[in-house]
Amino acid sequence: MAPPRLPLPRSLLNDTRVSGARRGRAWSRLSDVSASPPVLPAPADVSARRGLEAAQAMAAAGTGQQWVLVEMVQAFYEAPAYHLILEGILILWIIRLLFSKTYKLQERSDLTPKEKEELIEEWQPEPLVPPVSKDHPALNYNIVSGPPSHKIIVNGKECINFASFNFLGLLDNERVKNAAQASLKKYGVGTCGPRGFYGTFDVHLELEDRLAKFMRTEESIIYSYGFATIASAIPAYSKRGDIVFVDEAACFAIQKGLQASRSNIKLFKHNDMADLERLLREQEIEDQKNPRKACVTRRFILVEGLYVNTGDICPLPELIKLKYKYKVRIFLEESLSFGVLGEHGRGVTEHFGINIDDIDLISANMENSLASIGGFCCGRSFVIDHQRLSGQGYCFSASLPPLLAAAAIEALNIMEENPDIFETLREKCKRIHKALQRISGLIVVGESFSPALHLQLEETSGSRENDMKLLKRIVDYCMNRGIALTQACYLEKEEKCLPPPSIRVVVTVEQTEEELDKAASIIREAAQSVLN
Amino acid sequence: MGSYNYLGFAETGANVLKTVADELQHYGTGVCSSRQEMGNLDKHVELENLVARFLDVEAAMVFGMGFATNSMNIPALVGKGCLILSDELNHTSLVLGARLSGATIRVFKHNNMQSLEKLLRDAIACGQPRSHRAWKKILILVEGIYSMEGSIVRLPEIVALKKRYKAYLYLDEAHSIGAVGPTGRGIVEYFGMNPEDVDVLMGTFTKSFGAAGGYIAGKKELVDFLRTHSHSAVYATSMCPPVAEQIIRAMKCVMGLDGTTQGLQRVRQLGENTRYFRRRLHEMGFIIYGNDDSPVVPLLLYMPGKIGAFSRHMLDKNIGVVVVGFPATPITESRARFCVSASHTREMLDTVLNALDELGDFLQLKYSRHSRSSRPELYDETSFELED
Predict the structure, then answer these.
(1) Which in A73, A129, A516, B61 has the greatest CB count within 10 A?
(2) What are the Aminotransferase class I/classII large domain coordinates in residue numbering (chain B) (predicted)?
(3) Mean per-residue pLDDT, A107-126
């Protein structure tokens, strides 16, 4: 005898008799009832729910398997088609996953332990360092005894210094030395800590303040090493996925900074604005294809004021025009031009008369004109503040020894008091540039007002090594007659665009006109004797 | 107690700094040239010879900045096709140097020799990823004392592993040179090992010698190679002469070459101070990390909220401490880091310890569940003689 059927609530019964097209609606109405907020439900729905609960309770109470089956079958019929299909697909997928074979990870080694042992025994590493031949040109350094100032004693011979970047002659200055002595008495030598951990002294803050005022920017930040300045500043702003347009002749520190930042680097030909514009235009076209990505990539142009490798100046006004046209940011590296160009020595921006706020970041090292150690970056406040937490060379390294900071402050004082030394320096540069023009066999590379010139061979012999040997002979000839010169040194394998071998001639404000003329004539003699 | 002034050379007495002042007057402050061009002063040669003698190695080379020493020389030593195995908690400069070199980097767990050995075996057996060619070189990067943990590296075990698997070892002794070891020669002396076992000994002069700069020491071929191929030698300015003179003076003092035993006294004083400080902190019930001999003492605060309060209260009591939180450490392991110095007297340490005691109760920092007292417990059953 069939057990009595509990009457289903009327609404539900009615719905079950309708055709499949309205099944879905019934189901959704049920779910609406259960999901709706606790508003007072209509009596019919309450009874519906109560009825369903009662039915389930009856089924659960174990009034027979048939009840459960019947409920299931009924639910089955009442369910909408899409739900059934979805569940069916899921069940089939689970069955497939359960029965499929597991796949092996490719990296897991299938070597037996014995094979591993054999491989480990067999493996021979390269020596840690390859042997260096005894007559490698860079192995034997020139030993300088005494201060590397105007008159320098190299390898026992006294010469006039045409090789150290002591442009304003501040290395020997008594005022600078006295300031450093006073600071030494007060603070000792080292700071024993990074800037964040009790390594910030009042001299550091004063120096930052003075530099910002001198360059007429809002704020500046000091690093304890010149190389680390630009190499830490670039990765603080430019990350993976950003685009940097950099000149081919950029110095090594910039290259390392770019490598650390992992951004996309686009090189443009040295000082060639047309090439740069072409690259910018190509980038613009790329951006239009993918505007969402373009919104989040940052774009930078990185140039040097006076290039160390070629002695040229960058065409800053055109760069500013490109900056505003294509909306890229400019970073300027002024190691050579700080304290040299401009009426007051403020660098290439003053030379061209450009508002300094147009440049986003200026970075320079204090090791050239200021005759100290370290470097600084200056710019707007919000730009520089970022480096205080993200500049690796700033946060993770000890701060500048206070005596060097005090020396830099005094050097700045001297620069501000005597603005005519810059003009004097430029005159001397022009003089020697002219004097070196007519040497046969050597060409002068660099602007006439650049204090660091290069002398390259007019005709190369084809091999870099031979060129370097010839230049070394010229340098030795000059050293023997009292002029200290040096070859420009590069790491041949690491540079992106290796400049040709050259002799570096550095002009300082301390050299008299006779000395300049003497140097020019000795170099001419040397070139004639060696190259002919 | 926040500055890295382990041997107390960051001092300002006029007599003490006389040689430095003289050199400053003679040489000036800057150098304005790189080592290879015109920046190699006789002072640098003297310093390098002294460093080599101090460490008992064949040769050494000095650089102007400690951070840059790592980031510019690791790329010169290894390149693409090499493998770098570096410890989890290595300093940023080591990580940057490893990244700039272009080699493959694998990280092993901090001071965990099993992890390192497993990586070594897998690496040699499988070769380079994807191409499976043999590795050109394997370089293990470790530090002597880790500055955030105060732990000392397990040098004997690493050297044994290195010899077995023919890898090279680069030891960064930034915090440990001058600070550990019976005569202050660093980790190698602390463990009584041969300096030739470590291929590249690197260190900085900022911490124990109160100056600035870094050095790399080792065999003559290594140093010759670095003289020609290091980025710093070619492009970066060399160390400035007064700073070099300070290092020479400090090193001579530690080695005893200036005729006094002051150097040795300083090293001994540092050791005593370290042990005393750590013992008292243990007794008070704080949790501190690190090896018992390391002068870097991290005191765990755990709660990020207590960091600021700790620092401010200590400053009110005129004690300067360094507190570190995320992201330098995991977020639940914030700590206060003390650097013990040889120039701390017993009274100074006692002042600090009393302040810490008070503060520990106030901020509830005494988490340790070990027994508080150092006095041995007296048992009733000690041997006693029965009276007749």
Answers:
(1) B61
(2) 2-356
(3) 78
In angstroms, the CA A267 to CA B220 distance is 39
Size of interface A-B (CB pairs under 8 A): 285
For position A5, what pLDDT does the model report?
53
Tokens of A393: 């060379």
pLDDT of residue A31: 44
DSSP track, A23-37: HHHHHHHHHHHHHS-
| A261 vs B: CB within 8 A | no
**Residue A510 identity:** E
pLDDT digits (tens, 9 = 90+) for A151-208: 888 888 888 888 888 888 888 888 999 999 998 888 888 888 888 888 889 999 999 9
A185 → chain B, closest CA residue: B12
Cα–Cα–Cα angle for A28, A31, A34, rounded to 5 degrees: 155
Domains parsed from chain B with CATH numbers: 18-255 (3.40.640.10), 262-363 (3.90.1150.10)
Say if residue A437's pLDDT is above 90: no
Q: Which of A188, A193, A396 faces B2 most closely, judged by CB atoms? A: A193
Q: What is the pLDDT of residue A64?
A: 59
Both tokens of residue A363? 């970075």
Q: How far is B28 from chain A (nearest CA, A)?
A: 6
What is the interface pTM, i.e. ipTM, of the complex? 0.88
Question: In this predicted structure, what is the pLDDT of residue B97?
Answer: 92
Q: What sections of A398-488 are H helices per DSSP?
A: 402-417, 420-435, 464-480
Q: Which residue has the higher pLDDT, B140 or B125?
A: B140
In this structure, what DSSP letter does residue B89 have?
A: T
Q: Do A148 and B39 touch (CB under 8 A)?
A: yes
Mutation target vs B (from A107, A123, A128, A335; most B CBs, 10 A cutoff): A128
Q: Which residues contact B31 (CB under 8 A, 6 or more apart)?
A: A148, A164, A367, A373, B39, B41, B237, B238, B239, B240, B241
Mean of pLDDT values over A213-224: 92
3-state secondary structure B201-268: EEEECCCCCCCCCEEEEECHHHHHHHHHHCHHHHHCECCCHHHHHHHHHHHHHHHCCCCCCHHHHHHH
Rounded distance between C-alpha atoms, residue B172 and residue B162, angstroms: 16
Searching chain B, which residue's CA lies closest to the CA of residue A508?
B32
With CA atoms as reference, report the closest residue to B110 among B48, B168, B153. Answer: B153
| Rounded Cα distance, A189 and B10, in Å | 7
Instruction: Kindly write down the DSSP assignment for every residue of B32-52, as one continuous string.
Output: -SBTTTT--BHHHHHHHHHHH
Better-predicted residue by pLDDT, A25 or A510: A510
Which residues in A lie closer than 8 A to residue B236 (C-beta atoms)?
225-227, 253
Instruction: Identify which of B215, B233, B37, B71 has the alpha carbon closest to the alpha carbon of residue A256.
Output: B71
One-letter amino acid for residue A238 of the chain: S
pTM: 0.82
Beta carbons within 8 Å of A62's beta carbon, 6+ residues apart: none
Task: Say how many CA atoms lie within 13 Å of B146 toward its Cβ.
Answer: 23
For A192-336, strand residue ranges (E) read 219-223, 243-247, 264-268, 299-304, 329-333
The C-alpha atoms of residue A297 and residue A286 are separated, in whole angstroms, by: 12
Residue of A nearest to B133 (CA): A123
Interface test with B, best of A159, A161, A189, A201 (most B CBs within 10 A): A189
The CB density around residue A77, as the number of other CB atoms within 10 Å, is 11
